[in-house]
Amino acid sequence: MASTRDALEFPESDKGFLECQLPPKDGSTPRPDMPFTTLTFATSLDSSLALSPGARTVLSGPQSKAMTHYLRSRHDGILIGVGTAVADDPGLNCRIAGVGGYGGENLDSQPRPIVIDPSARWDFSEDSKLFQLCRQGRGRAPWIVTTRQKPSAEKQALLEKYGGKFITLEEIDWSVLFVALRSNGLRSVMIEGGAHVINSLLEPSNMSLIDRVIVTIAPTWLGQGGVVVSPPRRFDTEGKAISAARLKNVKWYPFGEDVVLCGQIRVNDDV
Ligand SMILES: NC(=O)C1=CN([C@@H]2O[C@H](COP(=O)(O)OP(=O)(O)OC[C@H]3O[C@@H](n4cnc5c(N)ncnc54)[C@H](O)[C@@H]3O)[C@@H](O)[C@H]2O)C=CC1
Ligand SMILES: Nc1nc(O)c(N)c(N[C@@H]2O[C@H](COP(=O)(O)O)[C@@H](O)[C@H]2O)n1
Fold this sequence. Notes:
Pathway: Cofactor biosynthesis; riboflavin biosynthesis. It holds the Pfam family RibD_C. By secondary structure, the chain is an alpha/beta fold. It has seven helices and 13 strands. It has a nine-stranded mixed sheet with strand order 6-5-4-3-7-1-8-13-12. The chain starts with 11 loop residues before the first helix and ends in a 6-residue tail after the last strand. The structure holds 1,4-dihydronicotinamide adenine dinucleotide and the ligand Nc1nc(O)c(N)c(N[C@@H]2O[C@H](COP(=O)(O)O)[C@@H](O)[C@H]2O)n1.
């Protein structure tokens, strides 16, 4: 039996209300050629994801962290930008008890990490957390999405050794990227960040691609100099500034000292 050491528990009593926010269990998707997409991250009261670019910053408390890992158990993929990969050296696996490597035998129950790295600048190695977890049977190797830069043969070989791969696109166009991920077998993807990725997805031309938003809000101000979620403003037909984006069907759930906000993006709404 795989080890349950370090496994997180997410109580049954907390799963019920989240169910309507999650990708359907039958694998169906709102758009047939794209995965179900969940934009999910933890933020401070001043909209920061981290103290500074490059600083791994803990915002979620234990309960909301377990919720994030439960979300990871319910998605086929976890997407981040290369800024996050470099700053955090993340594991991007699911540590919920019963999932592959944490009491479960089936590694397929672990989500696939996806890293957006247009110029293949991420200098990963055997020591990177993701590959350590692969060796322990506790996580899967990433798919790295590049555009203009051909990755080195060494990087390609290392990635492929662990079962990962490079996906090369003409450019990072979110629609094209999501279609590519669906055609590679992913039915659901949670997008964790960082700020560049989130702000880009909240632009008017991209926001309709997001099916759910699930944000953990921690009761802290990180202060000036943080890595901030603040998408570009929109303007109405008279040139007046309006909100960048707004949610509908909003629900708030307390999790320990944090609160988790769930909603859907309001599209074509200038309020
Ligand atoms: N609190 C939280 O939940 C999270 C916090 N973070 C934090 O966020 C910080 C990293 O954020 P960022 O520096 O903004 O980096 P990022 O992770 O958003 O990556 C930015 C890079 O990704 C690529 N990229 C992303 N979107 C692109 C697009 N639309 N087109 C082309 N290329 C694109 C570019 O190479 C860009 O330089 C780290 O400090 C990390 O700890 C990251 C994820 C979640
Ligand atoms: N939900 C959440 N809360 C926080 O406080 C965070 N700092 C993050 N960060 C995201 O989680 C990744 C780290 O994952 P591992 O624990 O290494 O598996 C990090 O890279 C961010 O994407 N998320």
